Amino acid sequence: SGRSRAVAVFCGSSLGNQKAFEHAATSIGHALARTSRPLVYGGGSKGIMGVVSGATLDAGGSATGVVPEAMIIPSQSGKAISSEGQGEVKGVILNESAHENMEQIVVKSMHERKVEMARRVGAFVGLPGGYGTFEELMEVVTWTQIGIHSKPVVLVNVLGFYSSLRELVRTAVRSGFIKEENVDLLVFVDGPSDQSQHSTFDWGSATLEAIDAWSPPTGTGFGFKWS
Q: How many alpha carbons lie under 13 Å from residue 201 in its C-beta half-sphere?
């Protein structure tokens, strides 16, 4: 297909409290590198974001971080300067001595960040995360539904993290707000039914298989003409 091979990964800037989350992020990064698919992500080296980008680069892959300028932290020799002087630093340090396979793009706003990420990729992957991750995933799946693009959105359902979202979608279908055929706009990779295997499962291969197998449901686009 003519779709870009690059993959956007939306995920938390925290690590979460289960090792399986980090394992899944590492597995995705390694699979992207192994199959020569560039990673596009929100920049930064903290949390699950840092795990997936680090794993991609460590395995010889390439990564592009897209960072809103408001989130950039001034640094001196790579050390963050916290405005409070102490506590956890929230934001992204632009690393001057960055990895040769790492590109960082600075944009003006959160909205521009998502447009820039979406423009560069052929698919989206959701690892566990919080409000920001949910919002990004919901926006790009909406864009597929209304025909701005036609790209798969694959949720890595580690330890059932996204199962309640699947239930919410089913509720919206039962309630007449989502068409039955549009359920498949969101693809869930569930992994083994035995969750004790989730910290060793090959999430990367399963996720890429789901991306490659995806085709747009009929009836998406609503006939809108987007420029």
A: 22
Q: At 210, is the pLDDT very low, low, confident or very high (cuts 50, 70, 90)? A: very high
DSSP 91: S
pTM of the full structure: 0.89
Tens-place pLDDT, residues 24-59: 999 999 999 999 999 999 887 889 999 999 999 999
CATH code of 209's domain: 3.40.50.450
225 in any annotated domain: no
Residues in the chain: 227
DSSP per residue over 117-158, as a string? HHHH-SEEEE-S--HHHHHHHHHHHHHHHHTS----EEEE-G
Domain with 148, as residue range(s), is 7-213
Answer yes or no: is 226 within a domain. Answer: no
Per the structure, the count of domains in the chain is 1
Residue 43 vs residues 65, 67, 105, 164: alpha-carbon distances, Å:
4, 6, 9, 27
Residue 219 lies in a domain: no
Alpha carbons 117 and 109: distance in angstroms, whole number: 12
Query: What is the rounded CA–CA span in Å between residue 177 and residue 111?
Result: 25
CA distance 215 to 37: 19
Residue 20 CA to residue 153 CA, distance in Å, equals 21
